[in-house]
Write a structure and sequence with these properties.
Helix content: 55-70%
Shape: elongated
Number of strands: 4
Largest sheet: 4 strands, mixed
Amino acid sequence: MYKLWATLVKDFRVLWRDGVGLALMFVMPITLVVVITDIQNSTFQLINKNKLPILLCNRDTGASGGQLVEAIEKIGMFSVVQLPQNQDEKTIGDSLRKKDALMSVVIPADFTRKVSAKSKNTAGKALTSFGLQADSSAQKDLGEIDPLTLYYNPVLQESLRLSVKGALQSALQLVESRQTLRTLYFDINEKPLPADLEGQMLNNKARINDIAVSINGSTKPPNAAQHNVPAWTIFAMFFIIMSLGGSVVREKESGSLIRLKTLPTSYLVGMLSKQITYIIVTFIQAAVIFSLGIWLFPHINLPGLELPHDLFGLFIVTLLTGWCAVSFAICVGAFSETHQQNNGFGAIAIVILAAIGGLMVPTFSMDTSLKAIANFSPMHWCLEAYYGLFLQNGTLSDVVSYLIPLVLITLAFQLLALWGLRRKNLI
């Protein structure tokens, strides 16, 4: 026991002197979690708070053009800047390139005339089908309404562009439906459609209730902090490879492992000491980042982190995640010949494992082959276990299926490290 204690003290002293390693393990992940949570929270709140700036050029002088402008403004996701009626495409393109806005909508000059003609055509067909109009001349095909023109900056992601197109299509459908109702009502009653009846017919839509499905039956939707804080805590844990892997390489280069073989102790004691030391570090990382999410985020206008109800489950998931990160770092350090190899391979490997593991891109958006590859990333199982606790309000028993593969991968890293050190006759 004394040998283990002495080795622990030595490893903590070595760690304390590693300023760069400490910065990578704490400063970098803290910065990442704050910045990325802020970015993702802005995306989550796009419709309610951070409206998308959009340039609107209405070349139509009729009523339908104005109604479409009003409908677009009422959508709620746009900050509309109206351009002069005669604004040309070059000026609009220059504004988008300067990023005054990322999108611009142009309403064609004959929009009202085409909407009116289409509504009369549609109303005529409806009256004929009702047997109220024998003349079919009104049913002739007048052609489609000239499309709206949507200019966009290529930096805009396709998913957001498609969302904007859907919103504009809804506004356009509202204008067309309103005009068709007015025309149909007038043809039947020979008087204008009352405003209150029009409002009831157009606005009396079935509501959509969105309910988050969780394990314990809670319907409270998770926020950006619940998504990002666990993910980047995992990323921070695995970045201990810079310090721990470097420590293993340093001991090989200095001959410490050879000297240990002459002493009445086992290198396994040293490996156990390193694992205990850095598992404690991973717990400190998790505690610091979770604390930031709980207490700092609300003061910088970010949603606060809510810890899961099963704190023992959170402890076990954090322990196994930290153990996996430590095992991976020792494994890489055992096979690296120099610090450059350890740091270079380690950093690239962590980014790749994070990418395929779902930390950077959700696994549900990947194709089938990448989803299969994600199962080989330990970060995938760590993230699924954390999400089971944070997002689905589960307990330890609910995430055991994710922890079993994580333990198997961790044991594989341990065996690889042991084999690598034995192969080089270091232990």
